[in-house]
Design goal:
Layout lengths: L32 H7 L5 H34 L5 H24 L5 H24 L4 H24 L21 H34 L4 E4 L2 E11 L4 E7 L2 E2 L1 H8 L6 E5 L16 H7 L2 E2 H4 L6 E4 L9 H16 L3 H9 L6 H24 L5 E7 L3 H9 L3 E13 L6
Parallel strand pairs: 3-8, 5-7, 5-8
Antiparallel strand pairs: 1-2, 2-3, 2-9, 4-6
Helix pairs in contact: 2-3, 2-5, 3-4, 4-5, 4-6, 10-11
């Protein structure tokens, strides 16, 4: 007679047919303890290595931010650059690790992009973002860089908090359990390549071109401009009420050959041409000032060889090298040595060993630009007494200062005309 199904049975009592006790039968779906322990997700060596690399990347990012913030604070407050060497070294390794991390994001989905994509892109985004500040408010650039360093520290601490749940510096900074599950995905790799090739790279190139055009226009006061087809300069003609005229022709040391020929034909026949060209009566320059090597490399013509005005009377209007400081002459000799003999190992070594004195930039700027402009303005004032038309074909860097002083002398802008200096050839050679 079968047992009543409603009555409890003794699980340890064997059935009449000799079957094993009920407790010994395995429950459907259950996993034996030994197998369950073996099925737990184990951190593979690859995941541990990746977690270590990400920890190193975050650690260097934080260290770079802290050192940069301290260095920038000293610069803003007291003008001291005490940590520049250490900062440069740490920044180099931090940027290399950030670049490596960015590349690994395309190869493996293990890296959580929401956390490490801001870190990897922080360096290029902030460097590109500093360009407009360098153009329009260079004197405030140190404060802007300080803000960038502060943002780097805050971002690093924020990532550390999200990864560990608290702000505590312990190794590893990136726990293995924060990595994603999938090791490789063709979809992840394809999207990464497509976004970089067809979105990020064109955007960076377009942004760089726009910044370059804005910088050229800003620093030359519109005397030079970058266009899609090439580089152009703007001639400006100034007229005074008594009929006296001054034409400013921005020049370039290397340009298209027809540029020099074209402007030479526009000079009035009764004009005085105040020529640019530093003399060297005492032979202080050890190498001749030449840009022939640069012109040949770019497939252009050199001003010294192609610019020979046939209309008007050329007169020297520049200073002598003897009026420059010894530091400027030393640098000119070094630069002209490279131009004349090329970037040989010896010349490169001399350039790397060159150490300018403090505030040398101001001294160089005064010698090469301001001092020569003052001399030229004196020549313009004296030559206006003997000529109705003056032509000034000087380098474009001189033009903003000259134009400003000319406008102060009762002249007004009467005419402008553009000339192509260099054409951009987008064809294979």
């Amino acid at each position: 007679m079968p047992p009543d199904p409603q009555l409890p049975t003794d699980p340890n009592r064997a059935p009449a047919d000799g079957a094993p006790p009920a407790a010994a039968l395995p429950v459907f779906g259950a996993v034996p303890p030994a197998l369950a322990a073996e099925s737990k997700p184990q951190s593979s060596s690859m995941r541990q290595l990746l977690a270590g690399l990400l920890s190193l990347c975050l650690g260097l990012f934080l260290a770079d931010g802290v050192i940069s913030l301290i260095d920038d604070s000293l610069i803003v407050v007291s003008g001291l650059h005490l940590l520049t060497g250490l900062r440069a070294t740490v920044s180099l390794f931090a940027m290399l690790m950030a670049l490596l991390t960015y590349g690994l994001m395309g190869l493996t989905p293990l890296i959580p992009k929401r956390l490490f994509l801001p870190l990897a892109l922080y360096y290029p985004v902030t460097q590109l973002g500093l360009i407009p500040f360098a153009i329009y408010c260079y004197t405030k650039l140190a404060l802007v860089v300080w803000c960038v360093s502060l943002g780097q520290v805050l971002l690093g601490l924020g990532l550390l908090f999200q990864l560990q749940g608290r702000l505590k510096l312990r190794w590893a900074l990136v726990p293995v359990n924060q990595l994603n599950a999938r090791r490789f995905s063709w979809r992840n790799l394809s999207v990464f390549v497509l976004v970089n090739a067809f979105a990020l790279l064109p955007a960076v190139l377009l942004y760089g071109g726009c910044c370059a055009a804005v910088a050229v226009d800003h620093f030359t006061d519109g005397f030079m401009a970058l266009r899609p087809g090439g580089m152009v300069v703007q001639m400006r003609k100034y007229v005074r009420d008594d009929g006296k005229t001054i034409q400013l022709f921005p020049m370039a040391h290397v340009a298209e050959a027809d540029f020099y020929q074209q402007i030479s034909q526009t000079f009035p026949t009764n004009s005085l041409i105040l020529m640019e060209g530093v003399s060297d009566e005492q032979n202080l320059l050890t190498n001749k000032v030449t840009y022939k090597r640069m012109a040949k490399a770019l497939g252009l013509a050199e001003q010294h060889e192609q610019f020979e005005p046939t209309r008007g009377e050329p007169v020297a209007a520049d200073v002598d090298v003897a009026s420059f400081t010894t530091n400027t002459i030393e640098l000119l000799n070094l630069i002209m040595r490279v131009h004349a003999k090329g970037a040989t190992p010896e010349n490169v070594r001399l350039l790397l060993q060159y150490s300018p004195p403090p505030h040398f930039e101001d001294q160089l700027f005064d010698d090469l630009l301001l001092k020569r402009n003052r001399h030229l303005l004196g020549e313009i004032k004296s030559r206006l007494l003997e000529s109705e038309n003056l032509v000034v074909p000087w380098g474009v860097a001189h033009m903003p200062g000259l134009a400003k002083e000319i406008l102060k002398s009762d002249f007004h802008l009467a005419e402008t005309k553009e000339y192509v200096v260099i054409r951009f050839h987008f064809r294979a050679k």
